[in-house]
Predict the structure.
Amino acid sequence: MTYTVRIKPRVHPNQEDREKMLKIHNKLKEILSNITEVHDLWMSDIRTLEEIVSDLRFDYNFVPPTNEDGERMGWSNNWVMGTRDDEE
């Protein structure tokens, strides 16, 4: 049995941001539908996933974490929200 919890958004994005998120949502939904139907993942879906990650990284300033020396860690780590200094 699946339960769905609806949470009110904590932020109120502008129309442009909502449209971007809707496009991302629909792309992800389409990929999930393809995976479910054919029990496989197409190379074009992988490309789309890479584009989504890239768009999110750029639009929301997501960056890889840094170690104690301030060096950025690998791509496989969970990314964090960047600061204004990271936007340069």
